[in-house]
Amino acid sequence: MWNKPFEKLRRRMTCLYAAIFGALILVIVAAAYTFIWWEILAHEKENLVAQIYHEGEEWVESEEPPCSEAAIRSGKMLAYFVDADGTKVILNQLGQGEVGQKIMQHEADWPKKLDTSRLLRMHGENGERYRYLAAVAPVIDGDKQLGRLYMFKNMEFYYHAAYKTLFLLLCMALVLYFAACYFGYWLAGRNIRPLSNMYAKQQQFTADASHEMRTPLAVMKLAVRGLQEDEDSRLSDFAKESVAMLQSESERLSRLTENLMTLARSDEDFLPVYTAQVDMTAMCKKVASQMALLAAEKKLQLKQEIQDNLVMQGDEMALSRLLIILLDNAMKYSPEQTTITLRAAKVKTHLVLEVCDEGCGIGDEDKQKIFDRFFRVDKARSRSQGGLGLGLSLALAIVRQHGGSIKVLDNKPQGTVMHVQMPADTK
Predict the structure, then answer these.
(1) How are beta strands 311-314 and 276-279 bridged, if at all?
(2) How many angstroms separate the Cα of 323 from the Cα of each of 75, 113, 269?
(3) pLDDT tens for residues 226-285?
């Protein structure tokens, strides 16, 4: 089993390989078809000129007409014999049908130079299509040129054969394309297998390390709390500060451990989603009320713009955590005396959540990077405020688990908008 990110990478690489192989196959088929048709046409042109010379010799010897009556009636072969100046018609074997008339109407398209040929394409009155190969060569009696003999050969048989050949080539190309897609899928899997194995080992290490750290961290937190609550201990001011620092760092490590465990589960699609009908209106208002106290401590105003009757299927605890992450992130980067706005509304069939702040904003080059783990736009400031660089990664995982999307927009005139879109309950 592949990890989900690597399965997506494998599919993208397969599509790329399939596109490359498909283009190569089409180029080869087009080149093969063009070469075959070019060779056939060149061969027929040479043969028709040679046939004109042969028929000219027979005319000189016995005045035998170049074309038989059967060939003329079927339109398979037609001829037109004029003197050397082209002013007098010696023999007209174009027949009385529509084909002969059309060839005569296209006399300007006949080959002009001797021993040359040209393909004529014509259309009948009822939309019929005629294709004839026209060639001209001199009829010579000794040293004297008696005239010019034009012969016209019906090429429909060759066109039908060419279409059948093209169809067969395309069928073969389709079979080769499917084989190439399978080969591309196998090749992509082989290429990314080392990366996937490395990623799986790293992921397992993260999960195992996080799990193993939970117990000693819990012991550390209890020990620190015991020191703080022990009234009989006479700790110096320095020791008290050290204990407070240990408490702060142990809490930070605990959050980091829990976040790493959650992300490790989300990578393997083990992040549980307890699907139930969630009253998003009530939940948004509840979270906003809780976060409003923290905002007031930081001299920020939290504004609510929440529609009524917002309902969706999902995990209420995870969705609540999503809102807390987005609001907490906005508070960290908002200067004092500014406003943070939480919006929730239904747009068509989707539930849209937006957290807008009036901070310094995020550059275009960082708008996708902020969802990467441990990425901080302002590393010094994030660390000083207790940021771990995992909040938005968790937010992205929660949104994806609910079949939604999240992106960063610019707030006007300044600031950032975290825009979340998830399927709403249509019942």
Answers:
(1) antiparallel
(2) 82, 84, 21
(3) 777 766 666 777 777 777 777 766 665 666 666 556 655 555 554 555 678 899 999 999
120 vs 258: CA distance, rounded Å:
79
pTM > 0.85 = no
Secondary structure class of 271 (helix, strand, coil) = coil
User: Is 169:179 a contact under the CB 8 Å cutoff?
Assistant: no
- The count of structural domains within the chain is 2
Is 254 among the domain residues? no
End-of-domain residue from the set 98, 131, 162: 162
Domain that holds residue 292: 276-423
Q: Give the tokens for residue 347.
A: 């747009």
- Nearest Cα neighbor of 418 from 388, 348, 398, 301 is 398
End-of-domain residue from the set 133, 162, 191: 162
pLDDT tens digit string along 172-213?
Answer: 889 988 888 888 888 888 887 777 666 666 655 555 555 556
β-pairing verdict for 350-356 and 416-423: antiparallel
CB atoms within 10 A of CB 201: 10
Q: How far apart are CA 132 and CA 130, in angstroms?
A: 7
Sequence-distant (≥ 6) Cβ neighbours of residue 401 within 8 angstroms: 266, 271, 273, 315, 318
Q: What CATH number corresponds to the domain at position 319?
A: 3.30.565.10
What's the CA gap between 418 and 331, in Å, rounded? 13
Whether residue 236 lies inside any domain: the answer is no
CA-based max dimension of the chain: 139
Q: Do 66 and 81 touch, CB atoms closer than 8 A?
A: yes
